[in-house]
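Retro notes (design track)

What went well: tokenization of the new backbones is finally stable.
What didn't: we kept losing track of which sequence belonged to which structure.
Fix going forward: every design gets posted as structure first, then sequence, in one message. First example under the new rule, 611 residues:
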């Protein structure tokens, strides 16, 4: 058939995508109206007939495939025009020729627009560089396997954290239709290191490529000269021209594991560090950064670039929308760092679980700041119980009192649980269990044993006091290491008070270091329950916590009786029980916590004056 107005002969060809039951069952393919046209042009091996320039206007040269005089005259009417103006000229020509049936009406089409503008995208032809990425049927000569299947296999070798993110990678690979376009027409970036020969007629032969040796890399073809040529031969007949394109961002960042590990520069470092263990990144760039890095490693080394991928979610604003520069809802960090401190902001960020979005929450930062301050204060308190200048002893053999052994048993459990969580890439869980233990330690254990640790009036024997001091120091010594990944600055500060070097290169805590201390965590649980009950009495009576109990009876579940009797002395000191503190079994078999049955309060002490 011949096209209207221009009289260009157009072949009619079968294609499986043509819908026989839709209209005439014939689809028009124009190079190029949309991406479907590109697919069909490639599938049917059609000739390339491009009439659009890079500036979005119609070419000024009349194509050789328009052979009729009328067609060439009609094409002259649209040369140099924008697509909008050319469209109007074509309608006028159709109307004049009588081939327009009815009058054209405006329609709404699903047209792609470029990101930062209001003009529809137009497809133009240009020379570009690609990397095979499994988007087209291609067998990897190194493995003899279809590249698409090979890359899906690589994704299944990779440990995704969380695992449900794996499907995003597989869907992307399975949906690929073309190779990876890696060239860009910009100025700043990593240039393609090659040149082209210029023939005797002064025409650039883009099929005659000059590549440098690996030893010569890196090169900039816009300023460097290929071997065997001089600068005077640049751009002249018989000479050369440099490639002007630069590499796409992902084409260079996809080599970050290799470059960081010393590839081509440090063989020893590379052998010891590549492939890496972990790629931490956002979920939204699985299809770009993660996938492109896997492609490069597969093509170069036939293996994964790392064993694990930890994928974070997005940060959401107050309306639960993704924070984005383009949306203008981003909160820059400097102000919140100055307001709450780096540790507090890091605490908030580390509280987010992998794969899940996290809301921007200043309240969480306040909690982090409170925790950081508590680490400083509690550590100073616990490490100075023996008095200024007293040696800090971290020997677990000194811990002999049941309550002290109990807190170390609880600590050992926390170490195991936090370590297992981190090994499973559940960093937020490790923080949660450590923080929960630390607050129990501060609110309950430290308050219970501080009088015994101070032992100002010699009410306790020295072995009992030493047991409390050692337990306090051992807990702090382990907790600052457990919290170091989350609160790096305050933990480093505390570490410097009694240790050499940095906490961040110190050995990670292991429960086996406390194996010689056999303790029952329920002792601390019983003591905490009783202390909470005693505090509640004073709170409800609206008296000072320093108000003494003249008499008090605490009822506790039968199972906790023995444990509570063993901590009675510490409980009396912590609750200011100057008279009799009686421990009795609860009548309620279902009771799970201690309650104060009866009490008599003394006179509240005078308020202390601030210095």
């Amino acid at each position: 058939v011949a096209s209207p107005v221009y009289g260009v002969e157009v072949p009619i060809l079968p294609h499986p995508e043509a819908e026989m039951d839709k209209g005439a069952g014939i689809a028009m393919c124009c190079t190029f109206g949309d991406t479907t046209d590109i697919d069909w042009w490639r599938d049917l091996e059609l000739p390339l007939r491009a009439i659009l320039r890079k500036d979005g206007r119609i070419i000024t040269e009349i194509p050789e495939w328009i052979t009729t005089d009328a067609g060439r005259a009609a094409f002259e009417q649209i040369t140099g025009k924008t697509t909008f103006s050319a469209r109007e000229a074509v309608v006028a020509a159709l109307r004049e020729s009588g081939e327009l049936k009815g009058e054209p009406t405006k329609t709404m089409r699903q047209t792609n627009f470029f990101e930062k503008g209001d003009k529809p995208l137009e497809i133009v032809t240009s020379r570009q560089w690609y990397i095979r990425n499994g988007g087209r049927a291609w067998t990897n000569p190194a493995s003899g396997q279809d590249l698409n299947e090979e890359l899906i296999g690589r994704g299944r070798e990779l440990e995704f954290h969380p695992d449900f993110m794996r499907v995003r990678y597989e869907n992307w690979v399975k949906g690929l239709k073309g190779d990876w376009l890696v060239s860009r027409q910009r100025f700043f970036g990593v240039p393609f290191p090659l040149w082209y020969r210029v023939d005797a007629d002064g025409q650039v032969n883009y099929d005659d490529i000059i590549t440098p040796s690996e030893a010569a890399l890196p090169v900039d073809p816009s300023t460097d000269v290929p071997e065997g040529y001089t600068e005077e031969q640049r751009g002249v007949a018989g000479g050369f021209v440099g490639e002007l394109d630069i590499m796409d961002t992902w084409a260079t960042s996809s080599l970050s594991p290799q470059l960081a590990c010393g590839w081509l520069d440090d063989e020893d470092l590379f052998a010891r560090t590549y492939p890496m263990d972990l790629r931490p990144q956002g979920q939204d760039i699985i299809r770009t950064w993660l996938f492109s890095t896997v492609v490069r490693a597969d093509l170069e080394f036939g293996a994964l670039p790392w064993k694990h991928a930890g994928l974070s979610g997005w940060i959401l604003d107050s309306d639960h929308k993704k924070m984005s520069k383009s949306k203008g809802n981003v909160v820059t960090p400097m102000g919140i760092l100055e307001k709450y401190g780096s540790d507090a902001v890091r605490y908030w960020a580390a509280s987010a679980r992998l794969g899940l979005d996290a809301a921007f929450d200043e309240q969480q930062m306040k909690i982090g700041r409170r925790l950081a301050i508590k680490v400083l204060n509690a550590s100073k308190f616990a490490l100075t119980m023996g008095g200024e200048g007293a040696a800090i002893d971290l020997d677990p053999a000194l811990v002999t009192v049941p309550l002290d052994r109990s807190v170390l048993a609880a600590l050992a459990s926390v170490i195991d649980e936090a370590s297992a969580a981190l090994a499973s890439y559940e960093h937020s869980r490790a923080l949660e269990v450590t923080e929960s233990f630390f607050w129990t330690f501060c609110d309950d254990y430290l308050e219970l044993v501080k009088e015994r640790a101070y032992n100002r009036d010699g009410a306790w024997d020295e072995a009992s006091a030493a047991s409390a001091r050692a337990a306090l120091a051992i807990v702090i010594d382990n907790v600052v290491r457990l919290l170091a990944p989350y609160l790096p600055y305050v933990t480093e500060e505390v570490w410097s008070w009694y240790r050499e070097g940095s906490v961040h290169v110190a050995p990670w805590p292991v429960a086996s270091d406390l194996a010689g201390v056999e303790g029952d965590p329920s002792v601390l649980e019983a003591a905490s329950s009783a202390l909470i009950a005693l505090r509640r009495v004073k709170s409800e009576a609206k008296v000072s916590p320093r108000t003494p109990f003249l008499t008090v009876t605490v009822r506790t579940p039968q199972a906790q009786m023995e444990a509570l009797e063993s901590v009675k002395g510490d409980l009396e000191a912590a609750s200011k029980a100057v008279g009799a503190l009686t421990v009795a079994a609860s009548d309620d078999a279902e009771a799970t916590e201690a309650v104060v049955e009866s009490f008599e309060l003394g006179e509240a002490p005078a308020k202390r004056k601030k210095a």
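Added context from the reviewer: DSSP finds 19 helices and 17 strands in the chain.
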